[in-house]
Amino acid sequence: MHVTLRQLQIFRAIALSGSTTAAAQSVPLSQSAASAALNELERLLNARLFDRVGKRLLLNDRGRALLPTALAVLDGARNLEAAFNADHDSVIDLHLFASTTVGNYILPRVLARFRERVPAAQLQLQIGNTRDVVTAVRDFDADLGLIEGPCHASDIVVLPWLEDELVIVASPTHPLAKAAKRGKLTPKQLSGSCWLLREPGSGTREAVEQALLPHLVDLQSTMTLGSSESIKNAVAEGLGVSCLSRYVVQDLAAADRLSVLATRLPRLTRQLTIVHHRRKLLSESLRGFIAHCRAQTQWLGAESERRAPLPPPR
Known about the structure:
Blueprint: H1 5-17, H2 20-26, H3 31-45, E1 50-53, E2 56-59, H4 61-85, E3 93-99, H5 100-117, E4 122-128, H6 130-138, E5 144-147, E6 156-170, H7 175-180, H8 187-191, E7 195-198, H9 203-212, E8 221-225, H10 228-236, E9 242-245, H11 246-254, E10 259-260, E11 268-277, H12 284-295, H13 297-307
Parallel strand pairs: 3-4, 3-5, 7-8
Antiparallel strand pairs: 1-2, 5-11, 6-9, 6-10, 6-11
Helix pairs in contact: 1-2, 1-3, 1-4, 2-3
């Protein structure tokens, strides 16, 4: 971009005063410098902005179209300077993008505690699947991403964050739930079940496949749903079984609408991570937020265990 704030400032002054001489006094600049700045702005925009009537400069249609934008840009610049000259907390403006499990079930509590520490912080959160998050971070559309699935992009830095336990759940009336009361379920019993899974591109889908396929002969999906919330409710209605984050199922498990099944499989976990672009300059605000997220790890794990305890070992 070649248009400068100084040129817009001079354009505004001329528009208000009607001459380069009066504008030069308010900026302040020499009359020749103000006139040169206007000529350069008109050249860059390839448009005449004023009608020359004698010694007067009157905004034409192109100038009138530009003026509101110029005023908004100059006002934004003034606000920027004022913010950085004031309390540092007031300039924290973070653009976050989280995958669905993290964004819907974990991050709200993390953000609430962050706002307790920094009440003036501006936080913008988008939610999508892991593929969406990585794309946004790679395109610099998000400052940080928080994901539940593996990241395969070479230009993304991956920071380990939180261990998430995956649990197999069914409706309390499902035959597997009843069988689990008699003993831990075998891989063969699980393989023959109808599984409800997330869509391709989801971190949960990839994590579940990596965790279960080495142990199950076949993982048949009879239904693919676009959110973990819809899957857990479908499971509660008896449509099949699924493997979901403990954070996702903890409410329905506590209400006895879902049964967490005891199995002979090893403990299933995945690593939740924080990601940023390799060339992203981490400001003090971003580093502080990352440190805050990591400081919540122990509390989040204890909270999840309290809300949705696993079945006792048999």
